[in-house]
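Postdoc handover notes: sequence design on the structure in folder B. Input tokens:
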């Protein structure tokens, strides 16, 4: 594990614990820099702890060396984390323990349904719910409670979701073995004491599952804030899958200026730490309310 020089912009407080959790499928790009920046500024303006977690649960999609490249980019842009980096690939025992807890409560079933089987279903139709014991070559699904998830998202406002009717039973471990995102992110947020999840609006639909899973595992869910994502000229989210260009770490100050401008802050200055200090002073006046996208030419 790599630990950066400890250079906090303010003394951390355990009252607020946030995190940035990239997948190592490629280097950081402008969109992921904005994501890191929003979560960082939100934490630091509240005198909080900011963590970095590498979500390396899907080896076939991961790029060799990407995790280290992401950490180097964060350091180059002055975004220094407060505790040891966590790697989800090292957390199998915790995820298995959570599955055991859910199985003991008779909330899991083993599902053989293929994507083709479910192609005409908006939510999982319940074909395999009777399979309550482990079976070979099957995904593990959580039979979600029949509840209404209602909460206030700090950026997107009131959210109201009928968990069973609108989202349905969710896979927690894939047929081919890897643990699913919904399980891993919830277990790690719980274990690390995350109080505020600040992430892109593209993950808003995952939140009701995670909130319900938090309570099922015996904990209160954190606060959520889903900010608008950066889109390109074609209207698509900037992402590694859409071949967004990698950041040039040698131009960290320009990269930060561009990312901050997307967020409504036109700032000059270098090095990155100076820009971040100035951004912190202005951040409480920035509003991302009810916005879905950010465009580079706005």
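Designed sequence:
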């Amino acid at each position: 594990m790599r630990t950066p020089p400890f250079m906090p912009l303010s003394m951390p407080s355990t009252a607020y614990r946030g995190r940035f959790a990239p997948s190592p499928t490629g280097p950081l790009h402008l969109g992921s820099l904005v994501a890191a920046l929003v979560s960082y500024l939100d934490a630091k303006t509240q005198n909080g702890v900011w963590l970095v977690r590498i979500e390396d649960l899907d080896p076939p999609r991961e790029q060799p060396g990407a995790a280290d490249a992401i950490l180097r980019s964060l350091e180059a842009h002055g975004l220094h984390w407060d505790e040891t980096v966590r790697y989800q690939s090292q957390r199998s025992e915790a995820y298995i323990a959570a599955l055991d807890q859910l199985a003991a409560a008779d909330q899991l079933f083993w599902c053989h349904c293929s994507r083709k089987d479910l192609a005409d279903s908006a939510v999982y139709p319940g074909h395999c719910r009777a399979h309550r014991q482990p079976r070979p070559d099957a995904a593990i699904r959580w039979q979600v409670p029949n509840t209404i998830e209602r909460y206030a998202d700090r950026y997107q406002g009131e959210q109201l979701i009928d968990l069973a009717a609108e989202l349905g039973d969710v896979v927690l471990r894939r047929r081919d073995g890897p643990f699913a995102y919904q399980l891993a992110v919830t277990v790690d947020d719980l274990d690390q004491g995350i109080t505020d999840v600040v992430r892109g609006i593209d993950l808003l639909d995952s939140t009701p599952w995670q909130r319900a899973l938090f309570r099922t595992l015996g904990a209160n869910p954190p606060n959520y804030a889903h900010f608008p994502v950066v889109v390109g000229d074609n209207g698509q989210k900037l992402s590694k899958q859409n071949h967004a260009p990698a950041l040039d770490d040698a131009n960290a100050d320009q990269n930060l200026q561009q990312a901050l401008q997307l967020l409504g802050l036109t700032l000059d200055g270098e090095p990155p730490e100076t820009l971040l200090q100035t951004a912190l002073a202005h951040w409480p006046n920035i509003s991302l309310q009810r916005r879905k996208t950010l465009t580079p030419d706005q």
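Context for whoever picks this up: The radius of gyration is 20 Å. Don't rerun without checking with the PI first.
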